[in-house]
Amino acid sequence: MAMEDEDNNTAVVATNTQTGIKKGDNGACIDRQPDTVVHRAGLNQTAGRGSRSGPGAHATTGIRVLKRNMKRNGSRGCVTRKTRFGSRERDWLKGDTQRGCVCLYGGTVDPQLPASGPQATSTPQTDLQLVLCSTSTTVEELCAQRDGKGLYAQLHGDLVRRLDPTERPLQMVYDYLAAMGYADPVRVQQEAANSDLSCLIRFYSERPGNADQQERTLLTGVFSVRKGKTQLHKWAERQVILCGTCLIVASVKDSLTGKMHILPLVGGKVEEVKRRQHCLMFSSAGSQAQTYFVNFDTLADYQRWHRQASKVVSQTVSLVDLSCYSLETVPEYLFYSQDITHLNLRHNFMSLQGPGGLLHLPRFSQLKSLNLSHNRLGVFPECMCEILTLTELNLSCNSLHTVPVQIGNLQSLQTLSLDGNHLSSLPDELGGLSQLNSLGLSFNNFTHIPAVLERLSALDKLAMAGNRVESLELCTLARMSHLKNIDLRLNGLRCVKSETREAVNQVTQLDLRDNCLDTLDLSCICNLETLHCQRNQLGSLTVSGFTLRMLHASSNRLTTVNIYPVPNQLTHMDLSQNLLEYLPDWVCDCRKIEMLDVTHNLLSELPSRLLNSLSLRKLLAGNNHLQRVPDLLDHVPLEALDLQHNKLVELPESLFYKALNLKYLNVSANALESIPPSSQSEESLSTLQELYLTRNNLNENCGALLVGHQNLRVLHIAYNQLLSFPASKLSKLELLEELNLSGNKLKTIPSTVSSCKRLHTLIAHSNHITVFPEILNLPEIKLVDLSCNELTEIQLPDSLPATLQELDLTGNNSLMLEHKTLNLFSHITTLKLDQKSTTSAGDSLSTSTPWNHSYSEMSGQRNKLCVSVLAVDRFGDSMEACYGIFDGDRNEEVPRLLQCTMGDVLCEEVQHSSIDNVYMSNTFLTSHRKLGMAGQKLGASALLCYIHHEPSEPGGYLSLTVANVGTCQAVLCRNSRPVPLSKVYSLENCTEEMERVKLSKAIITEDNKVSGVTCCSRLLGCSYLSPWVLPKPWVHTEPLCSQDEFLILGNRALFERVSYQEAVCTVQAVRDPRAAAKKLCSLAQSYGCKDNIGALVVSLHISEDSCTCDPPVSTTETRGPLPAPLPVSVTPGSNDTAMLSSSSGIVSEFNSETSASEVGSEAGSTASDEHPSSGPGSRPERRCSVHPATALCGIMVPGSAGPGTHPGLFQRQPSCATFSSNQSDNGLDSDDEAPLEGVISNGSKLEVEVDIHCCAFQLRSGAPESPKDLDLEKRGSDYPNGKMRRQNTVVVSATNGCLLAVCGREIADLKKSPSTSSLFGKKLCNGSVVAPEDSHNLIEVALEAPKKKSGYFTAPAQQDPEDQLIVPPCLEQEVREQLRGQSPLVSGPCAPSTPPSLKDPVWDHPHPPAFAPNLVPGPGPTPILQQEVYDTAL
């Protein structure tokens, strides 16, 4: 955190008068006096710097208030890091972790808060007060020193609550941070003083004003009013009020003391009066309707009143919704609306006292429904029992411990909700509520069903989920004569007793999900219609079948299910994820069964009678041991059939022409060699729409059998044995929309694919296709994936369809694209191409890593991709790596922000601690804070993997540290077996997390989601769900060994469909990380996944001693796709200087709608500096610390001699580095802070080079050309982090160790290269130009910038055209000659004449090339560039 200097001119006011103040010309200054520790009862050792006794001094307090006019930056209400703290504040924090600082904001709300929220306003905030205090300082003491009336706290930018006088603000912050997961007191103190924390917890010195809240609750003003439609009435100035459901007009001008005219508006009309400007006509409903005309002074008033009145008149009931407004009392004018029947005060802080307090609510004479949930009441307000008209009362989540006996007064009450409290008993008077039919007692502390409920004769619905009922007596239910629906989820039930065998006739619905039952006998509940008993430990289940309609018993241990008599009313049954080896006979006798789910069992056969059922419409029998499917004897109504992951060799011959209603068939992951014909004759009646045949043994003969399915929309036939696809057959599938032919042996896709006019998705990666298919003339084509093929050229039409959004051509090693082709691709949202590089394989050995990666992402049926990947093969300043995956479920903002910043946060945290659990936890907690306002309502699952040497033995063995929140998972393949490394933080999978959430009184809905929002108990973001959802991660460290083959990272959607073992076998069979990642995603889609899918595969090459030396060099040429690289960014300029840098290593596709400035502003920070290397001219052998060499490995710059200088890799700067607009020649700002890597100053602007695709941007300096240059180069090592500044630059862009060298003399030649010319024609997407700020936090700027349709963020400024170097075509030759006339930038040794390459014994894939000392052209042959990949929207 940047601190301010002591000599700043900011005014400092010590309001506790312990500090002597002298006022001078330069502002206020504080006398330097020795520190004094002040002791006071109730104030634990609070101290003020320079405090002294004196007349009028409050010597017994230790509170200092520093009031400042703070310059604001992009942190949305946080002061700049330059003006946050000075030396006095730092001294205050030293030595005592109980000291800290509370930031008090003014009474106006930050204008950058979201306009949709209840706390939005347009009034700017002017000042802020820093109050130095201790954890024992109370609100009362703070207010006494400030002469304030109170303090207000706001959590997560949401509601604002008045603090009690005895509450301690600093202790509240400390408790909040401790609940998040911080454990170190010093770190808690540091985080509490961080300005970013105001997005999570903030204090106000007075209640914030809110224009939006005022408009929705109360509108008032003095306007010209006329009553009635006739001209007999005169216009008069009157006080007019719109509150609740009524329009109130005073009878006397500017006075509310006289008679008030009330006009009910519900069901009435509000219309514009065209004859008068800004005039509205208000009319009530009914035959006795009255009318008032109101003439407003301004258009703004007119629109505001019209908008609010229109909402009221459109209502069908007299409802007033004042929820989520931080109210302590309701507006007093609301009591004029006596027609109110429904009042919603949910999520407020209602008090008993006051003119609009709860004590006055009985004044509503017609009130029927009252919602007071989430109001922190603490006690049941007895005054509610005086509203005798109430039929519905909601007091959930109010920390109630008892219910008063006066509850018996509410004889009209029908619905009572008391969920989420601390109740353990109910008063006997509750039994007198004869009309009560629904009672909510969920998530309380009941240990049994209260006996008083037996007296409630009308009660038919009882919710008691989340209590502590461990035993259920069925005879208790029998005594509740009217009870029909019982919810006993999440109770820890261990037994259900039925000792008397007394029949329970009235219960029809019973929910016993998520308990601990091992056996269940409900045969005495004769009229049971619906039973939920999922996620127990049931080994046996017995149910009465007289009236049974729905049975849900998945995720148990059932080997059999007994239902007697045969359930003839049964329509839906779910027995998935059990241990069934056969289906009971009664299943085939069910006459009305429509849906049967028996997936993930041990079934070896399906009864013939079941498949020939005349009622069954949906049968899910995947993941079993089925070897055959019985023949269909007659026409059946079957519509969906899922038989994936079985052992089927063939399907019934009559399947398609007996099941004419079949629309969905999934037989993936079987051993099928053919498919049955669609009909017995040439004419087919098939209605099949979706067909999934992936991962079978089908050949090209099956194409002819698909012709009959002319209604087919989705066809997945990937990973079979197809050598070709019949052209004439494909043309018949005219309705085809999605086609997946990946993983076959196709050499071409028939040209008749152009007949499929509705085709929008073509996936055909991992084939042998040499000719680009004729699909770019299809009118609806959106996605084309032809990666990992053998394409050599592309025949393009004159124009491409506007619908094309994604084109993947990576892994086609021989593909050459012309400049015209690249221009045609310029509008594509996501374009993935191979970048040709010129580095020889021999050069790549200098810094190769023992791992390499690739990834794949698929959006599925969603219109946006909410999964992002982080991958850095060279991380930190040693042989390390960092990989991560982030899944935002339905939001894309949070995953991309985490992708851009989390690597830098980890790099910073590992410098502060060597304990894996500490630095990983702090990385997640800090990233959670850095999400700012985006993380208040949105969240994401996150997983981070860090490969490193053990801190205790830096040169020793490698370890893999994994941390995760949410549902992203990591699997390590060791000895061909999966080793899970992560923990799934979902309520269904984690019992301890379920108990923690229950204890915190969260409401868990029936789909096991916290407050109905998320199934995860730990996420980054979603801070408004705190303390139920926390950001603290699971951390696990696994030592790596030579038996570790690869690492798989995936999101929830991937591992829900693909098991750990199948994922490991899949990657082992493919051997290429890119093709493996794509195959994992394709399999998940073929298995039925419709959501976003993300997979990251990291191949590992760990030797016996975990050393990182170069592997043995093989001269055998390797073939296969190479790791995904990165676009090149060249920023020419007269004063641009070179510096070694690297990006934060981000991985994601690019969007062409996202400008360069958007990406730069979205990336939270970039990586930092790299030391200039020295050494001999020849390339040294790269060694590890286990097998040390005489010279360190690194990037060697010939000519920068000196045995005393040590070459380095790269060291990252903290994410929140500070920039200065006046940068000196050595690249440091006025405060001597090292500039952020990837940020190049051009004098007036900063260009942020940020890659979204896991690369390390590296800039190298040339050889010295003069003694002055040589001196400059030598002095470069004296700068912090070894920063060097040169004019003649060489830009080296590297991804996964692959590089591209560009020097001044080669730019013109590269512009004419077909593969690189488009890179220089316009600015790439990985650049950003932003205006310099005193504190430029990129993630904060990104958050406050306006969004585009793509979901990215726009940077505050665009690039100045004058800063670009544009060479006209007529001068290119002259410029080239001038550049060639200059001296060589770097003179280095000759490149090897025969570049060696690597051959891995396991993965048929070369190790990623890396930096070499002879990278830049010098004397000798020009280095040869290898083929590389980049992702960009050109």
Describe this entry's structure for a reader.
With 1434 residues, the chain is an alpha/beta fold. The chain has 26 helices and 64 strands. The protein has a 24-stranded mixed sheet, with no helix packed on it. Strands 14-13-12-11-17-16-15 form a seven-stranded antiparallel sheet. The protein is globular and about 90 Å long.
Descriptive keywords:
1434 residues, alpha/beta, 24-stranded mixed β-sheet, globular, seven-stranded antiparallel β-sheet, 21% strand, disordered C terminus, 15% helix
Brief digest:
The chain is α/β, with parallel strands linked by helices and 1434 residues long.
What is Rg?
36 Å
- What percent of the residues sit in helical stretches (DSSP H or I)? 10-25%
- How much of the sequence is in beta strands? 15-25%
Mean residue pLDDT: 75
- Low-pLDDT regions: 1-62, 64-83, 110-126, 1110-1365, 1383-1402, 1404-1434
| Number of helices, counting only DSSP H or I runs of 4 residues or more | 26
**Largest sheet features:** 24 strands, mixed
Based on secondary structure, the structural category is alpha/beta
Give the distance, in angstroms, between the N- and C-terminal Cα atoms.
37 Å
Number of DSSP E strands: 64
